Amino acid sequence: MFACHSGVACSAIWSQAVKTAGLHLERAFCCCCLPACLHACRQAGRQACLHVHPNRSRPGASSCCAEAVRSMSQFNMKNMANLVWAYARVSYPCEPLFAAVGERAAAMLEDAEGRLLEPGGPDGVEVYYDNSGRRVERHANAENGGVATERVELRDGSVLMRDAPGSSNRLFVPQNLSDMAWAFADQGVANDRLFRLIAKRATIDIHHFSKTSLVDIAFGFATAKHYDQELFQAIEEFSLPMLPDFGPAYMSELLWSMATLGHRPGETFVMAAMEVTWTKWERVTSDRNWLAKTIWALLKLEADKVNPNHQLLTAFNDALGADDMHEKIVSTPSPQQPSIQSESESAHNTGQQPTQAGNAQ
Q1: Closest Cα partner for 74 from 130, 126, 33?
Q2: 49-51 and 28-30 as β-strands: parallel, antiparallel, unpaired?
Q3: pLDDT band at 354, cuts 50/70/90?
């Protein structure tokens, strides 16, 4: 059990959720891992714990949820993404939390930098809070070569004047978008505005996505049955040169996501996916979920028409034990809760935030 320390980052909640919920261990994590509960825990001098064992009550879960909703104005994008991911990961329903996060996150994503601008500011001045909770005033400055300046109010009461960050500055990272999409999809929370804005920002920033973030966001959108053509076209184009690095879980989830939403990648992509799958066929067949999703998705994407003589199709026949593959695979494999089992290249072993779609890349 984590000790109650004011400096505990909210990232601890998702790392513990992975370890405990996936392995069904009788462990707990402290709600002061939640930014919204930090102040309450310090004031009360005690800790409230959210138990994740499936057969035990979780007395701290509802109180943490309620406190998070009340304190939502203090959350940045990373806090919100980690929080909803953790609640979804331990399958604890909290509709008010997801509603509050959806509203705040969407408002942030309306801005290209992820800022939540305060209304009613003077002309030429934008006011927002950065990820450290500091108040920032951005002033248009025609006399500074057109470069805006920012006035940052530091915690010690002093003021920092600086040039405004460039247009590529973001108050969110790709994994925040992926985690939020997955969490809302996993909990069955419909929020078209949020998904539309996540898709918009992800499409623009697609070149900053890791393969983990890329697969996660595709899987989240597919689970939510929310298709955005521009996003999936960007995912297809950006992932194509990365496919040789995809293990069977990542490959199966990406193909499944495209096929589920009816996205039709080009022949070059399908042929590359077939070739990578064939070179790693022994690993693909080591997990029935990977195998089923890969076969279903590639046939849905008409791989047998793209390259009807590929050895992979013969391997499909052998695996299914039938001559007619289309009749054998008649429905989409349902989304699976991620397994804790991971391959050597898994994000779990690198200290990155875990992937939702397939921990074994």
Answers
A1: 130
A2: antiparallel
A3: very low
Which amino acid, residue 186? D
Residues contacting residue 136 through CB under 8 Å, at least 6 positions apart = 127, 128, 129, 130, 150, 151, 152, 153
Euclidean distance between CA atoms 160 and 137, whole angstroms: 11
Check if the beta carbon of residue 36 is closer than 8 Å to that of residue 72: yes
Helix H segments across the chain? 11-23, 35-44, 59-70, 77-89, 95-109, 174-186, 192-204, 211-223, 229-239, 248-261, 267-279, 281-284, 288-300, 303-306, 311-320, 325-328
Buried/exposed code over 154-192 (b: 16+ C-beta within 10 A; e: otherwise): eeeeeeeeeebeeeeebbbbbbbbbbbbbbbbbbebebe
Residue whose C-alpha is closest to residue 34's, from 78, 96, 94, 95: 78
Cα separation, 208 vs 239, in Å, equals 12
Q: What is the pTM of this model?
A: 0.78
Beta bridge partners of 137: 127, 151
* pLDDT, tens digit, 9 for 90 and up, residues 318-353: 888 754 445 555 555 655 544 323 333 333 233 334
Q: How, if at all, do strands 135-139 and 149-153 pair?
A: antiparallel
| Residue 245 identity (one-letter amino acid) | D
Count the Cβ atoms, other than its own, within 10 Å of residue 33.
28
d(CA 153, CA 283): 54
Per the DSSP assignment, residues forming a β-bridge with 28 are: 51
